[in-house]
């Protein structure tokens, strides 16, 4: 059997702070296949971004990956030198961030910035790389790509800047694309266009995608499989249909209840009471128990393992058998 495109095994990433060591990611495992879209969902602070930065090799001091494996086509990225990792980034693995303005350089034209990425990783003349950058701008649906290549980032709208970021991220045909809240900063119609574009380009190139979002509507639209994170751990993993139809973790059920449904008029949406725990002062037992309507005494004492609910569907809950949506 050939290795999965990406295998993350028991990843631990923590930050040293004045108050103590923050265990942001505490033993996360998942896989992404070629051409597959895996969504990682969870409230703010659940560890989604730190997981993706760990994969990119971009966790900076005071953060550190302290244990685990991140295998891309079988090769453990955590064993690569900084120099080797730079060859992977932007090339084999790319990332699209929420706010393109913070990733684009304001003093260079967008065409130059895409060309630079291409030339960093491919043996191409300046002319060839320039042509490729215009071709990429065209592919992401930017009208008048040759002209726009000469624009500076501030001359473009938010949606156009995000298209430029996608063009840049895909210019070297990465095998894995990490999209961290790629559309949160955009208005709803542009969001839909950008998501469609990412989906379409990944299908054409068989790119694996990790989509990080707290928007379950986006998950339903885009994902093949879903990982739900809570307090730095995976609490549920399932294919997108099972997750929506037969959620097994009370936290997932809470997230789904906060999703507006079509043809349903409600005064206000349900949200999960309470907040994500402070990782420095985690409650004993199951980290979700203080907010969980199913919690019993055992939940305050025993930390649950992931268990199989059905084939390909895992849940980290002691009371999984009693939980129903
Ligand atoms: N530089 C840092 N120093 C200390 N703690 C950090 C740092 N970066 C992240 N953390 C902590 O790691 C935890 C996980 O953060 P992360 O950004 O991965 O969450 P997230 O699920 O992506 O949230 P969001 O949706 O808000 O981006 C948080 O408790 C956060 O406070």
From TrEMBL:
One annotated GO biological process: peptide transport
Lineage: superkingdom: Bacteria
Membrane topology reported for the UniProt record: Peripheral membrane protein
Keyword Nucleotide-binding attached: yes
CDD domains named among the record's database cross-references: ABC_NikE_OppD_transporters
Spans traversing the lipid bilayer: none
Primary location class: membrane
A molecular function (GO) term: ATP hydrolysis activity
Record carries keyword Cell membrane: yes
Entry keyword set: ATP-binding, Cell membrane, Membrane, Nucleotide-binding, Transport
GO cellular component labels: plasma membrane
Annotated compartments: Cell membrane
Location of the ABC transporter domain: 6-256
Family per record: Belongs to the ABC transporter superfamily.
Name by which UniProt lists this protein: Peptide ABC transporter ATP-binding protein
